Fold:
Amino acid sequence: MASHSIKEITGLFGYPVEHSLSPEMHNAAFNKLGLDYTYLPFEVKPERLKEAVMGIKGLNLRGVNLTIPHKEEVIPYLDQVSKEARLIGAVNTIKNKDGKLIGYNTDGQGFITSLKEEANFIARDKNILIIGAGGAAKAIAFQLALEGANSLYISNRTISRAEELVLTIESKLNEIKVDPVPLEDRKLEMIIGQIDLVIDTTPVGMYPKVDVKPVINPKLLHDDLIVTDIVYNPVETSLLRSAKAVGAKTVSGLGMLLYQGVLAFEIWTGRKAPVEIMKEVLENKII
Ligand code: ATR
Structure:
């Protein structure tokens, strides 16, 4: 009699979840390695988050990803939280380890890995300009600080939010120089000459409003920069197009999406993720 194997179940808790590319990306990876795993989207309403998280234990799911609006709210329901996730104050990956729920944040690390893989960029001793002060900026800023960046400048339309993020980072890590900068040409002009990497964490340029002006004036860009955007649809945003035009190196947001998934896959399965197939899935879905 053929044995009937039980699938290991992983998935995504979000609200909404229907547009996520993660199910296809992970299922393709599981298939590629012949693992008896599956990845499902779960629409979890904010007021049901606690019950959903308890369900990971009750149903013995292997683990889940979390997306909007659950990444911060989930923390009190976990048994253990990684150093990065605790610093960032957000969890995007849970592993069920023998009934214990462990929270990780692979967003910041995924971003760092994509810069390393796609532009050979190492954060140590670098000066970095981050545009935006929301959740994505926070994850990326903490990870860059942990990787030994020399200085971080955080520029935001609402300067008070940039100041708040700077204070949060300073209160938790003391070796990094971190400053808020108003999102104005004059102010950015004063620092851009010493910057190695520009990261746009805002939604500016995202489909369908693809032809908007970039969040910073393209005249500020120069050919010594690496410029990245966390928007991955379109893969080449108006900011990246402008950066290419002045000879700067560019890294698209696809890499961050890919490598946060690669790291989550490795956390759940303990296997090296088949990166190429995961990348192929994303490229086919987006381009
Ligand atoms: P996420 O969690 O994805 O980072 P968020 O917390 O909503 O999302 O943050 C979005 C960021 O993009 C914010 O820094 C926001 O600036 P404000 O704090 O001033 O709102 C920034 N942002 C959004 N739309 C923008 C725009 N049109 N121009 C400049 N910045 C913008």
